[in-house]
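BUG: 3D viewer hangs when loading the predicted structure for this chain

Environment: internal workstation, default settings.
Expected: structure renders.
Actual: progress bar stalls at 90%.

Input used:
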Amino acid sequence: MKGLKTIIAVLCAGIVFSSCNNTGKGAAIGSAAGTAAGAGIGALIGKLTGNTGKGALIGAAAGAVAGTTAGTLIGRKMDKAAKAAAAVANAQVETTKDANGLEAVKVTFDNGILFATGKFDLQSGAQSSLKQFANNVLNVYTDCDVAICGFASSDGSEATNLTLSQNRASSVRNYLIGSCGVNANQIRSTQGYGENPEYLIRNANGTENMAASRRVEVYLYASEAMIKAAQAGTLQ
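Structure tokens produced before the viewer hung:
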């Protein structure tokens, strides 16, 4: 099992996000749960397969964008996206940073809202929240790239939880694309992380908050087009 976790960590080591200050209508799940482990996330956003254009751009230039006028423009755009996301029912919103120091947005949906226990079919309330999220955020801020991450609690077998978390992340992706009109190309990564202990949510006494650990997180971060527009000073 340890080997499986190692393989997952290696495959998913693409862009790392770490939490900043909370924003919008809700504090982060981890803050609500009392401690840090899943919330301060340092969450790995899956490998951005096929995104070589952006990878080349980041390697050459994006690392120098943070702290510049272009970085400020990206931050303002992400602040607007975060504000829009904070108005979505059942969504908890945080601003965060990507590996290049650029502002990004993390939106967390509790699996208690999205799915019944042990299931990956979206519940009706979840469909309403995701449709609102698509209409007010993803279909407005189309120059944000998106990563969808599924997580599970530690109850049940590791293999089952890994499959369940992937299926739940995929259910969110498929609904956003198939029923909400989100462009499939905008969603750059869909990844399940199972019960990886690095991402479990813990209470103040160190025990796992299983309900909080079962979740789907959606990350919005600067696309290649957004970075180029910011560098050109044309980003609105």
